[in-house]
Amino acid sequence: MSAPRGAYQHIDHGFEPVFDERSRVLVLGSFPSVLSRANDFYYGNPQNRFWRVAAACLGEPVPATIAEKRWMLLAHGIALWDVIASCDIVGSSDASIRNVRPADIGRVTGVAPIERVVCNGAAAGRLYRRHLEPITGLPATMLPSTSPANAAWSLDRLIGRWSQELG
């Protein structure tokens, strides 16, 4: 993998996790993309397939607003957050992430009876294993990334694999 282009910036996550006392599955990404940070919510890049995949797995229409996205997740016992609270990063490049401060996972696990952790992509899985699994004691299932950069996985193939964990 080539070195990321551009300047490193130290970025704080910027928005809250989605969870409540009924959340049983925790879906973790690595860190919000530039578009997600601009939109103040998860998977803000319209090319990212997360919301289409989740909706298909849960038998719901694809949510359009942040309120609809929150409702869909919470109605199905799903919490959503990222492994990283802050880091140095170039743009949206997971490969560039350094100087990681992990999320305070106890904010979620102290309230929600999380039974299963699912990571959206390899970077989230590696970061979870290194920084958060020792705290939670819960192994994670690493699923293929819904990022548009993961062109090897079609939407239908992603839905098939993700439905094994969310469906």
From TrEMBL:
Domain Uracil-DNA glycosylase-like span(s) in chain numbering: 16-166
Gene3D superfamilies in UniProt: Uracil-DNA glycosylase-like domain (3.40.470.10)
InterPro entries xrefs: Hypoxan-DNA_Glyclase, Uracil-DNA_glycosylase-like, Uracil-DNA_glycosylase-like_sf
Protein name: G:T/U mismatch-specific DNA glycosylase
NCBIfam families to which the protein is assigned, alphabetical: hypoxanDNAglyco (TIGR04274)
Domain of life: Bacteria
